[in-house]
Amino acid sequence: MHVNEPVTLIGGAAVTKARINRAVALAPGVVAADGGADAALDHGVTPDAVIGDFDSISPEALDSIPGDRLHRIEEQESTDFDKCLRSIRAPLVIGIGFSGDRLDHALAAYNTLVRMPGRRCILLGAEELVFLAPPSLSLDLEAGTRVSLFPMGAVEGVSDGLEWPINGLNFSPDGRVGTSNAATGTVHMSVTAPKMLVILPEHTLEAVVRALLTTTGLWPGE
To answer: Residue 36 in contact with residue 10, Cβ under 8 Å?
Structure first.
């Protein structure tokens, strides 16, 4: 799927109509990951495409969506989120319904973010959002906004606008992590590898979208 506008990707975990509307206002294309099609239809949204192995979409949803919008990928070696993210070419994906219900599903989604650094994707939950830090980033945040950094591999970085700068620190999942930092204003950050997850309060979504869409640097690869 190749589109020129941001895409909202709906998963099978709990979503609300308000969260769908908020995502679609920023990312008007709509794709459902397998059973996420039922969530979309339940809230009055017919997805432009459904991607997955189709082991959780209901027969009723299959009957309600035109056949040319259904894209079955039958292999079982990857998650439906993985199948969707590798199949979508868009400036940005906002994923909802991928966190909150099951921790193992959320962790698998974070793993996919790191394995596909060439995709810009924000995972939006009820209280927080998560995205993979690009090579460099400027985020317009209010002073006091919580900024957590969680490494998914060895990574270093530099920052300006964080209460506790990350300059000169070595991060790793089994070593130093960067949770519960805070912005002092606009945050400028650069990292050395596509391994750092940024975790922010959900109210920063609009600022994160603006930042990622105006960021020119992008990690190579899928």
So the answer is: yes
DSSP 8-class letter at 116: -
In which residue are the tokens 């459902």 written? 32
> Could you report how far apart the first and last alpha carbons of the chain are, in Å?
15
Tokens representing 185? 């204003």
Distance CA 108, CA 51 (A): 17
Largest CA distance in the chain: 56
Distance CA 109, CA 195 (A): 14
Rounded CA-CA distance 138/148 in Å is: 15
Amino acid present at 78: S
Identify the CA nearest to 9 among candidates 35, 32, 25, 27: 32
Output the CA–CA distances (angstroms, integers) from residue 68 to 37, 48, 50, 63, 120, in the order listed: 14, 10, 10, 12, 26
Residue closest to 81 by CA, chosen among 95, 101, 92: 95
Q: pLDDT of 46-102, one tens digit each? A: 999 999 999 999 999 999 999 999 999 988 889 999 999 999 999 999 999 998 778
What's CA 34's distance to the chain center, in Å? 17
Residues belonging to the chain: 222
Query: Which among 12, 13, 129, 97 has a CA at the least distance from the CA of 61?
Result: 12
Asked if residues 42 and 128 have their Cβ atoms less than 8 Å apart, the reply is: no
Place of tokens 């690009």: 134
pLDDT tens by residue, 109-131 = 999 999 999 999 999 999 999 99
